[in-house]
Amino acid sequence: MKPDMIMIHYGELSTKGNNRKAFISCLLHNVRVAIKPLGASAVGDRDHIYVHLDGAPCEKVMDRLKDVSGIQRLSIVHKCASDLEEIKVAALDLISQENGAKTFKIDVKRIDKRFPLDSYGVACQVADYILDHSGFGVDLHQPDIRLRITLRPDATYLSCHEELGLGGYPLGIIGKVTMLLSGGIDSPVAAYMLMRRGIRVECLHFASPPYTSLAVIDKLKDILAELNVYQPDIKLQVLPFTKIQEAIYANVPEPYCITIMRRMMVRLAVAMAKKNGALAIATGESIGQVASQTLESISVIEEVTNFPILRPLAVSDKVSIIDTAKKLGTYGISIRPFEDCCTIFKPKNPKTKPRLDECLKAESRFDFEALIAECLENVETIYFSDGKEKIVTKE
Ligand code: ATP
Ligand code: MG
Fold it and tell me: Fewer CB within a 10 Å sphere, N or C end of the chain?
């Protein structure tokens, strides 16, 4: 017996009151984009999205749907006519496919009230049939198989296989955020967490050639190809950061270099976010991880803007970040050796408790605004779609 359909359960989404319609139509759109290449189709209503396999391989469609945010649970559905004899045969056939299982429990939902038997009656009759025709036993508390039978006007749906989805919200429902992507372990994980929460991500990278190699861009491309699973199209903008960095290291006392560099990055990121219509910027910072990520540093760095800054990993520990990076497939890419603009100019004694007045004094020593304006005029944009680089433009 081959499955006919995958049923999507909304979960968290169902609590969203008036926004429900928008959530469902956004999720339906994302589901359609995800399954189209496999030849399946989808329709939705208030309670579920129904993915019709139309001959597409169920396992592949399930795998694809497990990466779509906003899905709580997925169940594999077999259909039969709403006729008691047919339901009995289909139920036995279905549970017989579950290798190693010995016990079952049946839950019946009677949506079609025209069905002659009530749900308890159907459960008893189907259970009796299975007991008479197989070695299965009934266990109402801890069954190996939980068979759900839903009597609907169009047909009866049988399901005994359910898997968890990614959870979160449908991508794009929350708005757009500018993500600072470094090529390290943390920022791709932070980007994924935003996507999973329904936030569309656009990425920025500060490049400092010739101090940092162009191989960084290849790394970012590989990282974005992995993240394309969760967001099928991603924009990456590369900002030329060399002149700003040289000016910092020529003018700023060494212990303050990292702090000032971060303040410049935030200024540039906010300008880009506003230009792109993003509602916040985001980083892969995790509090306490390095000198620039102490609370004192964060407050001095944030002083340059009142634009929202999201830090999805603020309180995550490195072990769990690495775990997620491994699941995403970005870990192996992130640990490839490379020089980041943060490591190449790394001061020996970075300030862990920088002072704002010192930062302002250091910044008054050079015309950083002119450098920022020049940097913003030379941004390169690359679009990534389904793991491939699409268009490259200079802005
Ligand atoms: P990651 O693993 O993400 O590089 P990290 O622990 O190495 O993080 P830092 O290098 O201090 O931390 O960077 C903190 C955050 O600042 C990064 O997560 C990223 O969001 C941003 N960032 C750092 N360097 C760059 C860069 N060259 N381009 C864009 N963003 C950057
Ligand atoms: Mg880094």
Answer: C
